[in-house]
Amino acid sequence: MRDLAAAVTAALARSILPSAIARGATAIRVAAVGDDGVITLEADGSPGAVLPILGRIEAQIRAAVPGVTAVRLAAADPGSPPAAGDLRGAAQRILDAEVNPSIAAHRGHVTAVSVGGGWVCIRLEGGCQGCSLAEVTVRQGIEPLLRARLPGMTGVADVTDHEAGTDPFFSPEKR
I need a surface site. Which of 8, 36, 135, 153 has the fewest CB within 10 A? Predict the structure, then answer.
């Protein structure tokens, strides 16, 4: 078990951590190793930054460490989160009051579409859908704001279909 954890930790440092940090995580570490080769990771900083790339992280770890059978992401335990309806409503009120007025200048809008396990799933619309700076907006703007206002929240997951964006404020070519 200890050898498996050490090998995964080395793989994380070698090829995974830099891209996770670029997305808003500050650290990723092995939280648990199951007898069946299932690795549970914890992320500091923005756990929502790791969620969209968890499949790539698992593929890289499994390629580098053959004994790993699956990779899971542990949710941070911020205390007891409010009920799902309360959390989604509270998040939407914050978004409407503090985020949407700012991103409206870019023809954008953000909606809290669902919650689960303390995760707030958001969808970016208008000029934000497909914008090359959408990830920055989520990880450096929206998520820290919601974390500060909603202590029971685990993280933010962007569920936007950015490929379907027809009029992004900053197109990928401007990046």
Answer: 36
